[in-house]
Amino acid sequence: MSISDKDIKMLWGRAAGICCNPTCRIELTQILESDNYNVGEMAHVIARKEGGPRGIKGGGKNDYDNLILLCPTCHKHIDKSPEGTYTCEELYRWKDETELMIRSFIRNVARNDPYKVFEVANNSLSYLSNILYFTNIRLSFCKNTDARLYQMVTRVMFHLEFLNVSDDKREAIVKISKKIQERSNNGFYYFRDFERLARELADNCYAAFIDPYDKSVFNFARSYVDLLRSIVLDEFNSTYRYDFEQSYFKLFDNKDCEIEKILDEMQKTDGLGQDSSLEAKLFRRVKYLLYNEHRG
């Protein structure tokens, strides 16, 4: 029985098309491009036949678990070497180390910038929070407020461009954002007309992030938005601060004295308003910490 397409794809994909011999690591796609590819590069750890290299009674299986990706040179050298020179254990180790190396590399390359995740979360959640607030007080339209809300949606789309999210989620977020912007450009309207779109925007932004760390950043932004809203509305209490600090410690190992100082000042101040210098200080500090977390 030949090697299945599924096993071929797994073998080549997990090793990223390179020879698993740690002293070689040649790119095997060059072989594919030159039309010299054959299944011989997919070497059996345990030989298919009993008498083959590293053979056992009954022979080895012809599947992913018993295969290792090697270049033709290494494949030939290993199989022609005296028995015991290259053991099954060593070949399995090569395979595991190569696949682990590739997975680690992909994670590092694909890891999202936490500050940009925060920006997407902060702006989508802030937009929803504002829409719900203005709907609740039955405010219809305010030019200055509208400009600020419009900017939030624009920032969601801007920072989303730099993040690793699925195409369908990206398209959904952009589609919702453009609907919001189009309606905003139509002149007079009621904020309640945007409530459904605002919820869809926030929900889709949250669903776009799969990585647990990205989810933690998003939840940190949620507690950040809740904290600021509570202060602006004079509803601040120790619960909001506690929730913010708990979400903070899911991202950072150490307490930040500057953050604590700002929170202490906020707790002593009533009715900060949306343009508070303390709010700006907190944002700058959060941005600094997230920015350095990504590059640390």
UniProtKB/TrEMBL annotation:
Domain of life per record: Bacteria
Residues of the HNH domain: 42-78
GO molecular function: endonuclease activity; nucleic acid binding; zinc ion binding
Xref: InterPro entries: HNH, HNH_nuc
This protein's name: HNH domain-containing protein
